[in-house]
Write a structure and sequence with these properties.
single chain; alpha+beta; four-stranded antiparallel sheet
Length: 452
């Protein structure tokens, strides 16, 4: 779309800047403000890390001493000032809030001071985030030799489609209202992964208590892990030799979500090393790995035929299929009741370790095999439903992000709110502001001539 909405005017940042003031100012550079000047407290300094998708975040503020800030008085910010990233993530923006009055900003940012009678900071903030004109302009001009960047002159020339002042208020009110709804929905959806994890834990707790089977009267007393497995040992205690290729060597990071991912192997070992390991240390389909050092208590069912190796941070359990279903054992090893047993026997402070002797004594409910299979089936069905819900929430979260962008794009095509023929056209407003700036400029020249 190239046609301006009715009553709007095509202008530039320079034309909507504050009258009688420097519109754009780049933050202090080099010797004016270096790393050695930063302190643990004092006057806040905003950096590019403070500019997020929703505006200014205070979590990454830096600080300088009052004496340093005094030397940089011309870089002090006022509430309502507009900050714009000039390097790296060009186009991030934010409005300075009341509680950062007097804060400073560093070289990666530019301070933009707008004429509030011409354009509101809130409207300009939404405009920068959502207008195709801004994206196209920044893409065209911000290609530096080493990284993207934009300077003061280029920012002043950035195109602005200016609505009538009354329509600006309507646009801002509508966007803020819709954004508040989106934020609530986004916050609710962001809780679902955490809730999904809690629901899974609740299901495993119920399974451990024998509440998922068809006939709880058939539940047998708990058995020790050592009585349910052919062997329980851990990986090699000696550092294996390295190889350019061969057998993957994994760490806990390759199984920390309960699934073994050989693509996360940190390196390889020679095939001869893998062949030299005892059979009890060679993973096979339906064996169970269990982390015993550091991030303890993570089980993973071996579901890959390819050989791989690991060290003593991981234990390997070979289930006795006549006594226990591998999938049942894998699921129940993730139950909170098992983690309680793990923490009870773990040694060490900086890095917890579950000794093999303690692991072998873990108690696991041991119903008949047909009951184990039924319990596993019910766990799988429940987990599938929960995972589908979490996946749908993730998809909905992405849709909301796209919806927000669509709302902003619609706003700056003049399609978000009704237009009012009685609104003063933005072109008239610009002419009035231009006359006001000329008057201020002439007054300053007169005063300068007088004092000369």
């Amino acid at each position: 779309m190239t046609d301006l909405p009715r009553g709007w005017a095509a202008t530039t940042v320079a034309e909507v800047g504050a009258a009688g003031e420097q519109t754009v100012l780049t933050g202090p550079f080099g010797s004016n403000l270096g790393r050695e000047d930063f302190t643990s407290s004092g006057v806040p300094v905003l950096t590019i890390g403070c500019l997020g998708t929703d505006g200014i975040s205070k979590s990454k503020l830096l600080h300088v001493s009052p004496s340093t800030a005094k030397k940089l008085v011309s870089y002090r910010l006022r509430p309502g000032d507009f900050l714009f990233s000039r390097m790296a993530s060009v186009g991030r923006a934010g409005i300075v809030p009341d509680d950062l009055d007097g804060a400073l900003f560093n070289y990666h940012l530019m301070r933009l001071r707008l004429n509030g009678s011409t354009i509101s900071s809130r409207l300009f903030f939404h405009y920068v985030r959502g207008s195709h004109l801004v994206r196209e302009y920044l893409d065209a001009v911000s290609r530096g030799a080493t990284r993207d960047g934009i300077n003061t002159t280029l920012l002043l020339k950035m195109p602005v489609w200016l609505p009538p002042i009354s329509e600006q208020r309507r646009i801002v009110a509508k966007i803020d209202s819709l954004s508040a709804n989106s934020k609530r929905a986004r916050d609710n959806l962001d809780h679902i992964p955490r809730l999904a994890g809690k629901y899974k834990q609740a299901i495993l707790m119920a399974a451990f208590r024998g509440e998922l089977g068809n006939d709880t009267a058939r539940m047998l007393p708990s058995s020790h892990l050592k009585d349910l497995c052919i062997s329980i040992t851990d990986g090699d205690h000696q550092a294996p030799p390295k190889a350019a290729n061969g057998v993957p060597f994994i760490t806990i990071a390759a199984m920390n979500d309960g699934v073994i991912k050989l693509e996360k192997a940190t390196r390889f070992v020679p095939q001869s090393y893998g062949d030299s390991l005892k059979p009890s240390r060679r993973p096979a389909i339906d064996d169970i790995l269990y982390s015993v050092t550091g991030s303890i208590g993570i089980p993973a069912l071996v579901n890959v035929d390819d050989p791989f190796v690991f060290q003593r941070h991981i234990a390997i359990l070979k289930p006795n299929r006549q006594k226990v279903s591998p999938n049942y054992l894998y699921r129940l090893l993730a139950a909170p009741q098992v983690m309680e047993q793990a923490l009870a026997v773990a040694t060490g402070t900086a890095q917890l370790t579950i000794p093999l002797a303690g692991l072998r004594e873990f108690e696991i409910p041991s119903p008949a095999l047909d009951q184990q299979i039924e319990i596993s089936r019910r766990i799988e069905n429940a987990f599938t439903w929960i995972d589908r819900l979490a996946s749908e929430a993730t998809s909905a979260r992405k849709l909301i992000d796209r919806l927000d962008q669509a709302i902003l794009a619609k706003a700056f095509r003049g399609e978000l709110v009704p237009q009012d023929a009685s609104d003063e056209p933005a072109s008239v407003l610009l002419e009035r502001m231009k006359a006001a700036r000329s008057s201020i400029s002439a007054e300053r020249k007169q005063k300068k001539k007088y004092w000369q």
